């Protein structure tokens, strides 16, 4: 007989990982940004996968319906990546990945394992808890961003390095931070739409404002465009019941943004640093004309 507490252990393991992962930072590492985060996520995936297999063998908690086609497609993709790496010029490099990011086959294998664990064991009643955890994590990350900006640009005692007045905190690159904060906005909005109490809605609106502020502090064009697209999607989806019209408006707007990017002067002239290829070639440019 399976108790609720036994069933919940796997759920809590999953939620702990997605909460801590974005916030994880190990400043004592030689490379203190991507590498420690990848290390933490890989260890968490291993623990979650081991627990999932243990549950399958001893407790037999498993989804009633599994998408075998999706699993097949992901495994085929993974095999193609392995094959191309074996046929490439440096398999060892493909295995470990970039020295600064650890983005090789080992990390990809962990992501595939996480995918399989989620496909086989993630249950629908975890969904709201997952949304909550992602929203809380993003709000904490946003507060961290704002606090770091205050220390760096007002008090002039930065807690962490800043990229020419652009905040990246534990993500290192401000664009990476902006990307994570953008994709987590819908989770906060979900609770705003579901919340019946006005006071709670006001608190959630404040949380969204905090997230918007943090995204702007990254000084990332992608972050600004992401906010605009997020707001546009929210307005269009609330006012239009026509899915095709909604998608057309959003795609047209994204197309206009793309044209703006292609023609914008500061984007044609790259910023201060470009990380090029696996050898981490650093190319420096005059930053004075650029904003991002």
UniProtKB/TrEMBL annotation:
Keyword Transmembrane helix carried by entry: yes
Keyword Ribosomal protein (UniProt): no
Membrane-spanning segments: 12-29, 41-58, 70-89, 104-122, 134-155, 175-192, 204-231, 243-262
Keywords noted in UniProt: Membrane, Transmembrane, Transmembrane helix
Protein name: LicD Protein
């Amino acid at each position: 007989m399976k108790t609720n507490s036994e069933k919940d252990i796997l759920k809590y393991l999953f939620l702990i990982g997605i909460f801590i992962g974005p916030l994880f930072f190990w400043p004592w590492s030689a490379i203190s940004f991507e590498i420690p985060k990848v290390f933490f996520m890989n260890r968490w995936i291993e623990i979650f996968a081991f627990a999932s297999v243990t549950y399958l063998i001893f407790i037999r908690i498993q989804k009633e319906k599994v998408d075998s086609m999706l699993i097949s497609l992901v495994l085929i993709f993974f095999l193609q990546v392995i094959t191309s790496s074996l046929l490439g010029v440096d398999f060892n490099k493909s295995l470990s990945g970039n020295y600064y990011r650890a983005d090789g086959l080992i990390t990809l294998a962990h992501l595939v394992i996480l995918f399989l664990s989620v496909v086989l064991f993630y249950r629908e009643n975890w969904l709201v808890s997952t949304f909550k955890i992602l929203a809380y994590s993003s709000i904490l990350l946003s507060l961290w961003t704002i606090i770091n900006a205050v220390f760096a640009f007002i008090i002039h005692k930065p807690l962490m390095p800043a990229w020419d007045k652009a905040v990246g905190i534990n993500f290192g690159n401000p664009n990476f931070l902006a990307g994570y904060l953008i994709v987590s906005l819908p989770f906060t909005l979900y609770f705003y739409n579901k919340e019946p109490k006005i006071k709670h809605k006001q608190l959630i609106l404040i949380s969204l404002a905090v997230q918007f502020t943090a995204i702007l502090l990254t000084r990332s064009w992608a972050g600004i465009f992401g906010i605009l697209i997020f707001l546009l999607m929210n307005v269009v989806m609330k006012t239009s019941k026509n899915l095709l019209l909604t998608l057309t408006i959003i795609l047209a707007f994204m197309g206009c943004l793309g044209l703006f990017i292609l023609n914008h002067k500061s984007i044609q002239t790259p910023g201060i640093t470009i990380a090029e290829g696996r050898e981490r070639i650093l190319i420096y440019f005059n930053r004075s004309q650029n904003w991002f």
